Amino acid sequence: MRPFLIAAVATLALLPAAAFAQAQKPAATQKPAAAAQKPAEKTPEKKDAHIGHYGDWDVFEGTEGKGKVCYMASIAKETKGAAPRKDKSYVMVMRRPAAKNLGVVSVTSGYVFKDLSEPVAEIGTEKLPLYTSAKTPDTAWARDDAKVVQAMLKGQTMVVKGTPAKGDATTDTYSLNGISKAYQELNKACGVKS
């Protein structure tokens, strides 16, 4: 394995603890009426297994109670803005088939977002709204998970623009290289037909 891939996989191996510590998707404070409420999520009980590396994406699986938890993640290729970051920015798509959560999209910034700010994910010409919550201050959640996933599968890059609690606005750029294969493996691992 190439040295940069080893570093990327090693960094992503640290994601499960950080990701699952914040895995409960909070309700949007100012959510559109058409958006559905998602059930609360629990932290997986066992260490997660790395399934594979696909382009710029990694896929993992774990268990929670008697159900599977599967997710794919990618670290930002480029970050701009003066916000002090404690960790690297990453995007994650998580599936919990037993809880009927089949594609929760989150972006963890590495900094605390401004309270009730509304980051935006730009994929091609689409601008997809995200929301933040005091319950998960460094994570933004997709208002429409399915729409974001479909745009990601068709796109080449995703640019997330956010407003930190301290510092200037940020722009994080994610590669979508390999996401289609990662998504197939994510579905396969969790036994979900796409």
Can you give a write-up of this model?
The protein is an alpha+beta fold and 194 residues long. The protein has a single domain (3-28, 43-190), classed as Immunoglobulin-like (Sandwich), CATH 2.60.40. The protein has 4 helices and 11 strands, in the order H-H-E-E-E-E-E-E-E-E-E-H-E-E-H. It has helices at residues 3-13, 15-21, 145-154, 179-190; strands at residues 49-54, 57-64, 67-75, 78-80, 90-96, 101-108, 120-123, 126-133, 136-142, 157-162, 170-175. Strand 7 (120-123) and strand 8 form a beta hairpin. It is globular, with a radius of gyration of 15 Å. It starts with a helix and ends with a helix.
Quickly describe the structure:
By secondary structure, the protein is an alpha+beta fold. 21% of the residues lie in helices and 37% in strands. It contains 4 helices and 11 strands, in the order ααβββββββββαββα.
Strand order of the largest sheet: 1-2-3-5-6-9-8-7-10-11-4
Strands, total number? 11
- The CATH class is identified as Mainly Beta
Give the SSE order as H and E letters: HHEEEEEEEEEHEEH
List the helices and strands and how they pair.
Blueprint lengths: L2 H11 L1 H7 L27 E6 L2 E8 L2 E9 L2 E3 L9 E7 L4 E8 L11 E4 L2 E8 L2 E7 L2 H10 L2 E6 L7 E6 L3 H12 L4
Antiparallel strand pairs: 1-2, 2-3, 3-5, 4-11, 5-6, 6-9, 7-8, 7-10, 8-9, 10-11
